[in-house]
Amino acid sequence: MVEEEVKRGFGPLLAVLSSDGVERITAKNNLTFAQLLLPYVDIQCEIKDPAGTSVSTRLIFDVRDIRREGFLLTLTVLPSVLHESVHTVASTSDATVAFRESLLRWAEPFEHEFLRTYIACLFVVSTNDADPLGELSKLIEMQHTQQHGSPTEEIGPAYCVHPKWMLPNTYKYYILVHDMCTNGEKEASDTFASMCSTYGVENCYFLRLNSGNGDGMKDIWKKELERKNRGLESGLALARKKILSKSAGSVEEDQESNQDHPTGLGSSLENCNCSYVKQYGSNLNASDREEISNMVLKFNQEALTPFVEKQLRTMNEQITARRGISRSLTTGMKKWFGAAAVQSTNSTTISYSMESSEMQMRRLADLCFVFGLYGFAFQLYQSLKKTFAVDQAWLHHAGALEMAAITFFMTNPQMPAKQYSQHYMENALNYYTTTCMRLIILLTQENDLFAGILLERCSVAFGNAKMLRKMAFHYVLAGDRFFKATQEILALECYKTALREYSQKRWFFAEDSILYTLARDSRSLDLALEYSEELFRPTSVQCEEQQQQFFSIFLELMVRRCGPNSVSLTLPVTVIVAKLVYVVYGNVSEQAVRELVGEASDVKIMLPSWNNLEKAAFQYFFGLSRKFVSVPSVTDEFSDYSVTRLARLNEPLRLRIALYNFLGFPVALKQLFLCLKEDYVELEKSIVDEVVLKPDEECVEVELSLVPRKDLSSIVITGISCSVEHCAKLLNCQIRLTSESRSFLARNRMSRNIQCCTVLSGTVSLPHPSFRIELPAVRYITAFCGQIYSVDFDLINEGYVAIQELCLVTNRPSMVSLYELVVSAEGEFSWEPSNYQLSKTDQNILIFHPKLGIVNSGERKKLRIAFRAPSEEIAGYSLSLLFYCTGDNGMCRQERHLISFDTRQLLEASMSSIGDAGDLCLLRVRNLVSERDSLLVKVKLLGVRCIKQPRGACPGLCTKQSISLMPLKPRDVILECEQSDNLCFTVGGESLSPESIVWLGTPFDSFPVWPEISTLFPQSSSASVSSFVFPNRSSSYYGVLWKADIVNKDGTLANITGETVVSFCCHLFPCESLPDTLSSLSLFEKTVSKSRIDEAFTESGRTQYDSSSLMCSVKCAASSISHDFTVERFCHLPIEITVKNNDKAQRHCNLVLQCYMPEGKGIFNSSQGDGCRTVSSTELFGSSFNSLQTRSSIGQPLIISNCVRKRASLSFGSIHVFRVCLSVAMASVYNVTCFDLTAQFQDDPETVQISLPLTFVSVTDKRASVKKQITVP
């Protein structure tokens, strides 16, 4: 046993570095390359010691992929992994084995020894790699850099220590893996030949894998991997949780919660048993497995063993040569005569260089030890312990003593105990704990699990020594520590073992304590009752209070196993009254229950609306000929319970009951359940364990339920059955139900006039469908007017009945749109609008009918619902959604959802006709968010779509029967706070369908399609709907689609979309009647006649200026910049202003760029007259003017420019770029268009002012970003 653990825990350590192509090949077998070798690492070999003696030994290689695994960090990760490894076993003996194996495997190596250091490295590449030889060179360079490069070079996971190497010249072995599932055998052979010519034939191996199907063969990897990775994954998760808890300052809270409740983190025994089992090696046949075994044998016999033998001889020769002349006479005299006098136990720190003779000898001894040369290693450890003792290097001395004891045992594992040098190990432990202050690190952390493991081992040792009382005492101590470590199974095992020693030996207090613990915490009820019965004796030494506690635990166990007595007593109403509050029939959410019982008055008013929606859905599926009967889901205290109501099969019938205690002392009611006139085995009843009714208390409400599993013609509920504790006994009692009011009960609690009631119900043979819509029952949404919300949700069939059809009914037809997921013939998924129609009896109710097909039990169907917030500013605007389904057996089920909107205005829009011919219209929009508001909102117009066209010719539009709008020139329209803009459209004769959208820029595909309400019925029959949605039936209605970027007052960003409905006023306005601020909007694009353009540009007598002469743009390096203002005070923003000369007269021009501070100044100077008006700042100087943007002054933090004025001369067709650097000193959103650009053309005395496009840059503080990332849970 010990020999096996030593060989497995201290075998030769081999490192693996593999390419990605290799891991892809081995991943076909659910393995890594290092895991692939696990079943073949146990070999028998011959090796020569430095003296030339051949020794037959058994080696168990420890193969590790150093990029994926290694030795764990001792203080942070290793304790958690050890804790979780013990969680996977169920007995103390197995727990000790699991603890020891995990400790030997994962504990990091110490600095004073060379054990658990890598002796060789396997470099593995595959023929699937693009360049196998190049990949091999990278792996070799990676290993060399890690071993001989910077000590901070990381190669493995962060939770592992850096790999350590035993020899400076680590042995390297090269493996080429070929996947037999692919072709290219010749190319693989050529690659392997190149490897052999470069690295030597003896150092290379060609491994072929995945030759065939290995499903019928034994899985030899599963047991090895389970043993190796026991508790590793859950331990790493636990370690991470502890580290995060410490960083958050909640270590004490986590420790208290761990002591009270076992957290587990997926590592409890039950979770481990339920883990998913993989099939390993499914593509490895017998030849592949034989090939892997041959590779390991060849690697050891022809490569590693000769290398190790050579290293042993070389190191032995070097050490012998050094020892001959290295020490002086003084050192020798000190060694022989001063060693006995050196008895100091003071902690001293002695360090040796790795090239010193002492460390070279320790390296030689450890190398002999890991390769099974225990005799030669013992001699070296004997010499080392004397040398270290002379130097007073107590840590090295203790390590040499420890290894001397182990190697002495390994030379003859069958030696008698008296021949074993026990004093070596005892002295080593003494030096570790006293002189070196190296008490086991795991115990210094006061971990209950590790203390419990050691105490259990002490108990076993005391038992072997026949010291039974000490054995039992230490088992109790171990059980207590296991309980604190949340290892309940191990704790009970220790207590059971201790009980065998204390039982019937007059150790009453100790025996009672153990029995009480076993009775309280045992998982087996029968065993718990056995232990609790033993607590009662004819003469007990326990006090009265303690005996009552014992008796309480006994009664609790009896109730749990046997239940109360069969005799039932009916409690009079003068003692306890059970008042019926409400009854719920079937699966109804709590929110729906509150609505239906009318707890809120506003919800009470909405009840008729729900009935109308239910009726509309019923008639949609079953027609008008079938009589509609509303099936109540809830009945309250005012209902008539003498009427039999329907209870749904396999669904709970829930009763909410208020209990009143009219006695003067507390009464404890236990095991409460519903009492029936006739009991049926087909009814499942819920039980409430205990209810304490205190005197003079208002009431205590309990909820009891039963589930009918079979068709029952009559279910009569008469009251509540419960158990009352009286004189140390449990009595079965019954409390009758009443529906009297609370005030009546208060007045007549001592009278006999309180009338009892019964709940009558029955079931049908057909079960009802049951489904769940994953939407909150009630949602309160604060939105902007016209804001659009899209929610994807699942329809889940939770019942046993297949759902035949589903519909969605709503009372707000213009606010809801339903989509269903459609799969095309090519297998592509897309969202398509569902079919819809108005109710035949109520035209204000809209019904959506998605084509979902049959939804079987447990099946999910994805749907998408879109909401459009009301177009007016309103509070508490309710939207009712009723999902109604029918099963394949004809039964129905509904689910209700209520959404409430609170809206505020964001965008104001209006549209009217301008011009003499009526072929132009004007869209005026304005951002209503104030600059003084805490919100920063930037609105961008996306497009316009038609919602409703008037029937017949529109007055004032000549003879056009329908209207279509097209922008004169699409452009970006962006509105800051309190900013307005105007956009011109041409009026055509072909109407737009609701699906057609006139985009002002790049199409935006996130807008839903709303139902065409006006087309569902003739105009005469849809008057109620049209008047509700569209007040003016003679006007056209259009939707202005917009997107808004919002910066909240806390600095968070939000992006929303919406649609603002505007009516198109058909009345014509001549251009002269427009306000002065809009007069420039008569300057249209190329579609307008040249004479009108000439008139516009000769306004106020100014010389005509062609707007296409110059084109310019403003560009910043990035729209969002993160800057650390603590490192550098100013954040620099490089700005490029590009100007191109496209003058039709081919004139050159002189440009002047002047920087100004935009604090309190807008892009347009209001003091300038009409003669200074220029093109819109959102246009890149197109062919003509098309709009004028007005904006209020916008303040922002100070911007510093590196220049005040720049000049340039621009010839025709050339481009000039002004490069300016702006500096800001704080985080904000900046308008970097803080420049005045003027141009003077050749032979033109006039100076033209050019407006630049608006450009914004967001500067954030990097400190805030880091802080936000840290606070994220």
UniProtKB/TrEMBL annotation:
PANTHER family (UniProt xref): TRAFFICKING PROTEIN PARTICLE COMPLEX SUBUNIT 8, TRANSPORT PROTEIN TRAPP
Superkingdom in the source lineage: Eukaryota
List, alphabetically, the GO terms of the cellular component aspect. TRAPPIII protein complex
Q: Where is this region: Disordered?
A: 247-266
Q: Which InterPro entries match?
A: TRAPP_III_complex_Trs85
Which Pfam families does the record match to this protein? TRAPPC-Trs85
This chain's protein is named Trafficking protein particle complex subunit 8
